[in-house]
Design a protein that fits this description.
Layout: E1 11-13, H1 17-27, E2 31-36, E3 45-50, E4 53-58, E5 69-73, H2 77-86, E6 97-98, E7 103-109, E8 115-121, H3 129-135, H4 141-144
Parallel strand pairs: 1-4, 5-8
Antiparallel strand pairs: 2-3, 3-4, 6-7, 7-8
Amino acid sequence: MNSTFLNTIPIMRIFDVVKAKDFYVGFLGFTIDWEHRFDNTSPAYLQISKGDLVLHLSEHHGDCCPGSTVFVWMKGIEDFHDTITSRGYGYMRPGIERTFYNSICVEVTDPFGNRIRFNEAQPKGSETCDERADSNNIPVAEDSGSACH
């Protein structure tokens, strides 16, 4: 018997759908694919996406625990960082840091304590992560106390 695993969709625990939309849609630029409630007073369950990245957000207490971390590989992290920091979100201004595993990392924390670590691997055979980070004034994660490691 052959099994094929297609994709993973992390579920992030939220407590306030309005705050979640402000963070994930307004700040990070995700799109709401769908939103479900059993009735008008039921907790919300949403699917959001940005490119190929899909997340589920749940107000249901039994779905998951707050304070989770999702690790995301991506391309174009410096443009992404510039875009989100230019939005002027009042509760977070994330940095961009180089990691010991040869990537550039931007970590964000949502209003519910969940973290997303966006990472872009640095190409082999070109300048090293350290050289690229130095030329762009990107601090080293180990020196800054960041969790991007």
